[in-house]
Amino acid sequence: MIKSENKISQFQLFFIIIQTQIGIGIIYLPYEVNKISGSDAWISVFVAGIAVQIGIIIIWLLCRRYPEQTFFELVNSIVGRPIGLLLKISYIGYFLISAILITVQFIEKVNIWVLPRTPIWVISMLLIAISVLCVKENLKVMARFFVLVSVLLVILLSFTFLVLKDVNVLYVLPIGVSGFNNILKGTTQSSFAFQGFESLLVILPYCLGKSVGKLKVALSANGFTIIFYTYITFITISYFGSSALQFIPEPILYIMKFKYLDIIDRVDLIFFSIWIVCVATTVMLYLYLSSIGMTHLFGKTKRTTFVYCMGAFMFIVVLLIPINGQVIHTLGYNANRYSTIFTFVVPAILLIVSLIRRQKGQEDMPT
Amino acid sequence: MSTSRKPLLLLLCCCLTLLTSCWDQILLKDAKLVMVSGFDLTKEGRLLGTVVIPKFSSSDGGAKIAESQIVSGEGDTTMDVGKELNLKIAGQFDSSKMTVLLFGEDFAKQDIQPGLDVFYRDPRRSLVDNAAVVKGRANDLLNIKLNESGGISEYLDTLFNSAQNDSIIPPQTRPMFSDYSDPATDLILPIIEALEHEVKIIGIALFNGTKYTGKHLNIDESSILMLLDNQLKNNSELKVKIHEKEVPESKNYIYINVSNINRKLKVNGQNANRISAHIQLDLKVDVLEYSKNYLDSSQKIQALEKTISEKLTAEANIVIKKLQEANSDSLAIGRRLIAFHHATWEQIDWIETYPTIEFDARVNTKIINHGIFN
Questions:
Q1: Cβ A126–B183 below 8 Å, yes or no?
Q2: What does the pLDDT read at residue B64?
Q3: Do the Cβ atoms of B47 and B81 come closer than 8 Å?
């Protein structure tokens, strides 16, 4: 059972999902997708987002059957203890690896764009320390923080309006020129940007309100992310053109660097500083999810202890990973491939199994 | 109370050490800010870089540029030149605030891309918002003694800005590489010339890919090119010769200002062997100067509109001919071909096809007002 003071409102759920999804992707999603689907990259991003909507529905259907249980509780009742244990451990691993990977990618970008001479341990310590500080509180406190920093998203968006008058729509025409296959391949490539919706597996039961209402909130939050990412991809392609975009791994920052306002010389640095918060919220939520998992695994220890331990663990692992573009790209590529298992495949299988077994959670009596 | 505050205080003190950002500080006092640089090609084919470093002096109104230090050095690449310059300059040479980049004629004819690479690669460098080709050598231009006070960087920057506002040279809305790395668009840059004590913009240099073609448009043609490209900033003043035999000579001309522009660009490309492009340009103009005739009746105005339209159409077609001769697709006809006739684009080699396509323009003018005098 989840204590009532720990519950979050649906309004807060909306921002938690947005803040978890929008993060590292803003900066290099257009580049990564453009490599594969060229000027149609924005379609790929859009399609990936729609696929994620289906993923959300699957997770919601699964969670609806056990309305008071988080993922870590309901696996046991669906597949039994041994497999449940395996799933729990792999999900904890997945959440933790996601957090580590985002941290590493973040450090690489900070290192290359802003602070080339600052040692890596300092940057990673700053990010991890802030995350730990926030995650050691309960979900309600985190949710409040997420809602608060969402104001920054508005600022981030308003910076991109600077570009609008210089975009050339001819660059995205003709629509569909890269072919169906490439657009589809681009879709799988862009799915990494939407990661974060799987957090619903754990946080959905924390949310107050009717089940259908929660689904609506989750879908509209992801809808916002779809629009946001498609918009970013669209303007970067129509600003640079597909062939020029191949040279720029961080297109949105590049545009910001070129544009300058009379009072602000380097808009990119301000954009970057705001973006840091978006990344931090993503790391926080992943850290939170894995700490919840650990508490379920070892029932007696307090969650905050795990948060500290895992923060330290993350810090050590981050220092062990060599920060260079190639390594990080391979890591990201592989993680991206396997993440689909955790975000789509496992929830779908669990849903099917639970449907077959016709099991229902103890609290949810058939009406 | 005090027991719980102590660890917090300790933590705060520890955090203070993190706030200093001791690793990545770059102090202004150590840096020599380069505001303008220029690239030339030496006779041996090496790169000659010239940089202008303003010396600031404090005066009543704050810091002012008193004089500029001009340093040049030779090298094989841009970085090599930078290293060479650093050996001649006291302090660290820093081009993060650079506003103007100049290419000598020979350098631009060879290829501008190698010179630009480092500006696009280094996150601290500025992304060159004003670039221009120099007729002659950039080094000579940067060494002239200006009549105007202030540094050459400020001077050139304002020079470009005012010409952009008059719609004579293109505004830099995108980094240059996005133009030259696009197979269907060509770059255009302003071309400037050094006079004895001034610098003068003499038109637009036409590029093909990353290379300056050696051909440039004069000022009148540049204004027309900007209009054909649908780029009207604040105003665009055109001189049109509408009579031939008036005495004195100045009665042959009319001066108009374009206040509104409507451009339709249509590219026909169903057939790869017969690609054609047509520009329909509707201008709303104000008469600024016309010493020949009284504009008191609408018949006279209509007749005048007709003559202006004919003359401008002829001039626009000359500009287009020049673009095609230089093989510079700065109006991005190829981009439209990609967008609307993709099958045709796949069949053709645009660099070979572009000069041969049928490309014409038609200008229609409408006089909106003629000031407070007939």
A1: no
A2: 64
A3: yes
Burial (CB < 10 A; 0-12, 13-18, 19+), residue A342, is buried
Cα–Cα distances (Å) from A72 to A122, A128, A238, A327, in that order, read 34, 24, 44, 32
- Spell out which residues of chain A touch residue B181, defining contact as CB-CB under 8 Å: 241, 243-244, 246-247
Nearest to A243 among B23, B120, B183 (CB): B183
Is there a contact between A118 and B123 if contact means CB atoms under 8 Å apart?
Answer: no
ipTM of the complex: 0.84
Residue A364: the pLDDT is 46
The DSSP output letter for A290 is H
Flag if B342 and A171 touch (Cβ within 8 Å).
Answer: no
Tokens representing A286? 């992943």
Query: Does residue A361 surpass a pLDDT of 80?
Result: no
Q: Which residues on chain B are in Cβ contact (under 8 Å) with A260?
A: 129
A247/B177 CB distance under 8 A: yes
Is the CB of B340 less than 8 angstroms away from the CB of A174? yes
Helices (H), chain A: 10-21, 25-37, 41-64, 71-79, 81-113, 120-135, 139-160, 179-194, 200-203, 211-240, 242-245, 251-258, 267-297, 303-320, 325-340, 346-357
State the pLDDT at residue A365.
42
CB atoms A166 and B173 under 8 Å: yes
DSSP, residue by residue, B88-138: HSSSEEE-TT--EEEEEHHHHHH-SHHHHHHHHH-TTS---SEEEEEES-H
Summarised one tens digit per residue, pLDDT across range A149-161 is: 999 989 888 888 8
- Report the range of poorest mean pLDDT among B11-20, B154-163, B323-332: B11-20
Predicted pLDDT of residue A222? 92
Q: Name chain A contacts of B97, Cβ cutoff 8 Å.
A: 265
% of chain A with per-residue pLDDT over 70? 95
Q: In what order do the strands lie in the sheet with B47-59?
A: B62-75, B47-59, B36-41, B100-104, B130-135, B188-194, B199-208, B211-217
In whole angstroms, give the CA distance from residue B277 to residue B334: 10
Name every residue in B having a CB less than 8 A away from some CB of A: 18, 21, 23-24, 97, 120, 123, 127, 129, 173-175, 177-178, 181-183, 185, 332, 335-336, 338-340, 342
Answer whether A244 sits within 8 Å of B339, measured CB to CB. no
Mean pLDDT score, A200-228? 89
Average pLDDT taken over every residue of chain B: 84
Q: Which residue has the higher pLDDT, B23 or B315?
A: B315
Lowest mean pLDDT among A45-49, A241-245, B369-373: B369-373
DSSP designation for B145: P
State mean pLDDT over B62-84.
81
Which residues of A are less than 8 Å from B343 in CB distance?
none
- The answer on pLDDT for A224 being more than 90 is yes
User: Cα–Cα–Cα angle for B109, B110, B112, nearest 5°?
Assistant: 90
Of B220, B189, B192, nearest to B205 by C-alpha is: B189
Residue B287 has pLDDT above 70, yes or no: yes
Nearest to A126 among B18, B181, B182 (CB): B18
Looking at chain A, which residue has its C-alpha nearest residue B178?
A244
- What's the gap in Å between the CA of B184 and the closest CA on chain A? 10
Instruction: Report which of B4, B7, B60, B68 is spatially closest to residue B37, judged by C-alpha positions.
Output: B68
Q: What is the pLDDT of residue A363?
A: 46
* Residues B39 and B47 sit within 8 Å (Cβ to Cβ): yes
What is the chain A residue with the closest CA to B121? A248
How many Cβ pairs closer than 8 A exist between chain A and B? 64
For residue A366, pLDDT beyond 60: no
B245-257 per-position pLDDT tens digit: 888 888 888 888 9
- Name the residue facing B182 among A166, A243, A257 (closest C-beta): A243
